[in-house]
Amino acid sequence: MSGISQERLMQVLLAPQISEKATYIADKNDQVVFRVNSDATKPEVKAAVELLFKVEVKSVQIANVKGKVKRFGKITGRRKDWKKAFVCLKPGQEVNFVSGE
Question: pTM value?
Answer without folding.
Answer: 0.83
